Amino acid sequence: MPKILRIIYRFNIGGPTYNAAYLSKYLNSDFDTLLVGGVKEEAEASSEYILKKLGIEPIIIPEMRRSVNPTNDLIAYRKISKLISQFKPDIVHTHASKAGTIGRLAAIRNKVPIIVHTFHGHVFHSYFGSSKTNIFINIEQGLANQCSKIIAISDKQKEELSEIYKIAAPEKFEVIPLGFDLQRFQENQVQKRTTFRALYKLNESDIAIGIVGRLAPVKNHELFIRSIKNVKEKTQANIRAFIIGDGECRSDLQELCKSLGLDYQYSPNGEVSESTITFTSWIKNIDTAYPGLDIIGMTSLNEGTPVSLIEAQAANKAIVTTNVGGIENIVIPNVTALLTKNNCVDDFSEKLKLLVESEPMRKAQSEKGWNHVREKFHYTRLVHDTENLYYKLLNQYK
Fold first, then answer.
1. I need a surface site. Which of 28, 38, 173, 220 has the fewest CB within 10 A?
2. What's the Cα-to-Cα distance from 306 to each of 235, 300, 313, rounded to whole Å?
3. What is the rounded distance in angstroms from the CA atom of residue 395 to the CA atom of residue 314?
4. Which residues contact 143 (CB under 8 A, 6 or more apart)?
């Protein structure tokens, strides 16, 4: 029975946790899988409830964290190296940059036969200055040389990694999109809409606009807030905005609301007023939130495969998003989403206003979303594609 050691950088809410969890749970019984991960940052929400729901008990390495810390990183490396020597995996599969660095180094040191790494996103633009970025690129190029295969989660990401950043030759990559349990976004939509809108005191005529994700610089929520202000000033429609998620930038974003004269509330426990902008913090059962919204926005400066846009299409929601990373592989431009220039308030505001003022446009988008994502991004397809890759690599190694 082939053994898989799967290593994820941290258990926070997001696509990587779902990816690692579904692969750990649903791989063919031919495989013996062990899941290892680090811990979330203080401002993030834990995703361990996802694992518990699936009956997965991971090994937690507290020293493996998002931030660079030589002492913690060395301890994490030694713990993973020891685990590899004890578990003796046939395949080490790492997910995202920190786990990819520490896990692959440990796998190389222990002469693991097959090493696979998944890029869920990358930090090669919109994160650091050019000098630090070049260091990360050089590290990834070196590690890629030791990999059996590198997984990109979209065709666009593969193109960026292979052609722009020269991480590895195109033939070293395998494109395997993420997969999720999407059926829940189709269930009980009317009831969920009623409950959400009653909780947040939304009238049926109110247009509710949501953005879902970490409150981190790369997500660029400032663009979302400034666009809400612009649209509010230019439309007769009554709009309400919901920032779903939490993180290091929340206080700065709330200060921005103040400076722009936008009334807002922070409502993590449901104490609500009819504010223009509501910071809800994390909503774990996110399928209960989408039905209550009319439009989903995404303003990121850099993305791999944004989970919120897959979920929004599964929930039949209209979308306006910056055109970054692999977005064009996630939505159908001008069919399931309107795409805007990166970090352009005028363009984002204009297209958001179009959706706010056109119910037919919102309806046309929403009707196409589910059919687009239901098979392409379902976890059964993810598992099938990954199994096939594993079998191919194992056969090559024999």
1. 28
2. 29, 9, 12
3. 36
4. 100, 101, 104, 105, 117
In angstroms, rounded to a whole number, what is the distance separating the alpha carbons of residues 172 and 3?
A: 22
**Could you write out the DSSP letters of every residue in 232-280?**
HHH-SS-EEEEEEB--TTHHHHHHHHHHTT--EEE-TTS-----SEEEE
Question: Domain spanning 183-373: which CATH class is it, in words?
Answer: alpha beta
pTM of the entire structure?
A: 0.85
* Chain centre distance of CA 27: 21
User: pLDDT tens digit string along 12-43?
Assistant: 777 788 899 999 999 998 999 999 998 877 76
The reply to whether CATH 3.40.50.2000 applies to domain 3-179+378-397 is yes
Q: Is residue 1 scored above 50 in pLDDT?
A: yes
Which residues have CB under 8 Å from 265's CB, separation 6+?
Answer: 272, 273, 275, 277, 278, 279
Dihedral over alpha carbons 225, 230, 231, 235 (to 10 degrees): 150
Identify the bridge partners of residue 180 per DSSP, sorted by sequence position.
Answer: 378
Q: Are 46 and 17 in contact (CB under 8 A)?
A: no
Handedness of CA 124, 126, 129, 132 (dihedral sign): negative
Model confidence band, residue 139 (pLDDT cutoffs 50, 70, 90) = confident
Domain limits, CATH 3.40.50.2000, in the chain: 3-179+378-397, 183-373
Contact 141, 164 (CB under 8 A): no
Where would I find the H helices in the chain? 15-26, 48-53, 70-87, 97-109, 130-145, 155-159, 189-199, 221-234, 250-259, 307-314, 327-330, 345-357, 359-373, 379-397
- Residues 128, 129, 134, 140: what is their CA dihedral angle, to the nearest 10 degrees? 0
The token pair at 7 is 């290593």
Q: Work out the pLDDT band at 323, boundaries 50, 70, 90.
A: very high
